[in-house]
Please model this.
Amino acid sequence: MISAIVSGFTGAMGQKVLAMIQADAQLQLVGVYNPSVTDLTPATYDLAPTVQVFNQLDQITIGADVWLDFSTPSGAFANTQFAIEHGIRPVIGTSGMSEAQIAELQQLANQRHVGGIIAANFGVSAVLMMKFAQLAAKYFDHAEVVEYHHDDKRDAPSGTALNTAKLIYDAQGHDEPGNPREQDPLGARGGDYHGIKIHAIRLPGFVADEEAIFGGPGETLTIKQSTTDRASFMTGVRLALDAVMTRDELIVGLEQLI
Amino acid sequence: MISAIVSGFTGAMGQKVLAMIQADAQLQLVGVYNPSVTDLTPATYDLAPTVQVFNQLDQITIGADVWLDFSTPSGAFANTQFAIEHGIRPVIGTSGMSEAQIAELQQLANQRHVGGIIAANFGVSAVLMMKFAQLAAKYFDHAEVVEYHHDDKRDAPSGTALNTAKLIYDAQGHDEPGNPREQDPLGARGGDYHGIKIHAIRLPGFVADEEAIFGGPGETLTIKQSTTDRASFMTGVRLALDAVMTRDELIVGLEQLI
Amino acid sequence: MISAIVSGFTGAMGQKVLAMIQADAQLQLVGVYNPSVTDLTPATYDLAPTVQVFNQLDQITIGADVWLDFSTPSGAFANTQFAIEHGIRPVIGTSGMSEAQIAELQQLANQRHVGGIIAANFGVSAVLMMKFAQLAAKYFDHAEVVEYHHDDKRDAPSGTALNTAKLIYDAQGHDEPGNPREQDPLGARGGDYHGIKIHAIRLPGFVADEEAIFGGPGETLTIKQSTTDRASFMTGVRLALDAVMTRDELIVGLEQLI
Amino acid sequence: MISAIVSGFTGAMGQKVLAMIQADAQLQLVGVYNPSVTDLTPATYDLAPTVQVFNQLDQITIGADVWLDFSTPSGAFANTQFAIEHGIRPVIGTSGMSEAQIAELQQLANQRHVGGIIAANFGVSAVLMMKFAQLAAKYFDHAEVVEYHHDDKRDAPSGTALNTAKLIYDAQGHDEPGNPREQDPLGARGGDYHGIKIHAIRLPGFVADEEAIFGGPGETLTIKQSTTDRASFMTGVRLALDAVMTRDELIVGLEQLI
Model:
């Protein structure tokens, strides 16, 4: 039985985390935290009376095995620091911390032998896609990355697509050769990362799909992950919960566990 | 039984045309033509003794139902003109004629009531893909086109992809709305045709695939054609052979028959 | 401006219909109906005070342009009959009516010149997929159907997949030839409808995807629709709303409008 | 520079092997072997005069670094034995040897410290697909396998598809749970291997595609390899050539190198 405190419990991801915990007999919710709430009655949030609601960090004296944080960037560092100092293993999905902040937290966790994880993406299929792309890159000289997202997404390409191209480049060790005779007046060949082309498709109906395609003489290899519901992150969060219980350092990235 | 003369019979496509004719009991090869050959012995080309080999247009006096032309741009116009004037229905896959030349040939064919077809692409799946994209465009405000070709291809996007975008635009009747907040520093969003994005992927292992993707709230529709062997053109050529036998005008584009 | 009454307004689909109407300036919600509710206060259901809540058919005297029904099978016939008799054009997504009942309603609507539609599936991409499959079937001798659904789905294949196979068979006019030498000890070749193989995939992560694949020498054509959110049905409902305003008969199937 | 003898040089695969060697400056063809040929003149087979043509094993006294065998099952064992005994590293794509024969050859190669490989499939993308499927299986409880081949293929499912299901089952360690309420009157759910469903699609236009699909809450992961030309095997053969030069045992399966 793993006891948990959920930070950012009123947000969309926080609510999915609560649902996951409540559906899992191995997990027990003991507290929730959000500095913006004023009502501290559990029933207001459809929580059992045994769950304590907090709006100030220093009032959280109950202890727990894990600290699940899907809140806002502004509080991420302080929350994680608080958790480590109180021996509560942090599982952090909140973005916005600097590399320096993360390094400081890692040092603190190491000193106190507290296991934990900070991850930008808890999607298991996305992490596996990147991992397999990295492995495949050794056997193919040519790769392209295609990602498909809803038309409201502002940034192109997606962070996962760019990261996938980086992992492929690192594995290949050199720029991919282009076709010097190619003519592309419209820019249809897409974005370029060391010769690896990246294509971003934006259409309503997609949630988030990421695809790496490798080509060699007479064959192609495609690794594609498709997200239809952000609840998919809960698979990765669950994996992380088990992992941090047996670790004694703060790791960065779900790929470290897979 | 349809009797045929094949122009450009020594080329790659010409050879596939010969193979198709020989495998089809409804078709009979009576002559072949190539101004570059010097040896006029059928056996030299593994042809039956009844097949006549020509290297000059004005020596072709045998008559036939159809003239299949998969030769070189320089001879396309003269060949087609010759066929029409001799009442041999032209089925022309050779590219390179100007619009003016095509118009002149159409006028000639109409005068003489000779059926025929000039097509840049005899791929049935490609023509159907374009047709369906055009139909779907009425029901979706958002579409993107993706094409996949081998890495030796020089032009991007493919003619079929650009043509598909044009057909979608024509059917929608207005530019597709973009996302004004989109940030795309690498050009990953691809080529643009009136708001319809076009993505060209170039990898060894692909022959020629073309894809139109439509998106609406909660759903996508994908129409994809994939070519694994250029022999696929023979399906369209066969379709054209039957069609020209019952027509009395020169049509342009396989889509006119489908 | 189209005024609407929504029957089955408390259900999942009914709620999506309400959301669609509220987001569309061309549509106006005037009433909602559900025989199971006891509280007739609009505010209870987050409805504007101008919207009337009904729990008995004979109390609905307000009149409206359209009657949107996404309720339960038991009430579908009576509801549709009531709407037609009161000159309210029915748009019926509720299943469960017999062919005899539908025929009776069609006769009634024709007599009264009331436009309407009964459809099992308001997914535009699904209807287009079926339509395109039917058109493509004329040009290919070989087709297979693949559908992908979540692992809780009980019936295999899906109704849409079976219907797609039927449409392909109708268009081809004869059984597809099989491979007499084929050996398939595990039944991996899937279900069979007149030689058209149907494959049902059941995995968590899929919502509902349907795919028709056609093959010819050296080429394939794939038509695939993918549903990521059941809200996709609203596109088809919206299309139907406009259509029934200008019709004077009760049609069956969204494909009649596309 | 690796010197090579090619056994089965007149067959389709043998010809592709010759072409690969001739195009690679690191490889040198020194001999070819086929017990069925009677003409031993290199020019007859478009080979350089320095290449020796053999039709009897015991006349091959020239020595070489590697023995490439893509011949017929009847000679595979004797050929491989001959190669090992003469210190020529075997790269064997010829099928038909029994497990006992392979074990005997492995023992012989180990004794003599001769590197070599016997592989049923030299397709790099297929081997990677299987490897990734095996890795992904640890993170997903649900997987299905789909394979697409030309309609002349006799066996369903393909050996690769069945092998992929086996690897997934081995990695998961238990049967996948089914849906006890599922109704499948047509057998559309396909073949079954310990709960992993296998679907075989047979259509002209496909060469050989293999796909593993994994599903979890809200996400899917698809690993697909596609073969458009059997020349793809040469990538794996080339990989094997380098590998056997630095090994001193006979390995079985390209996956041992990847």
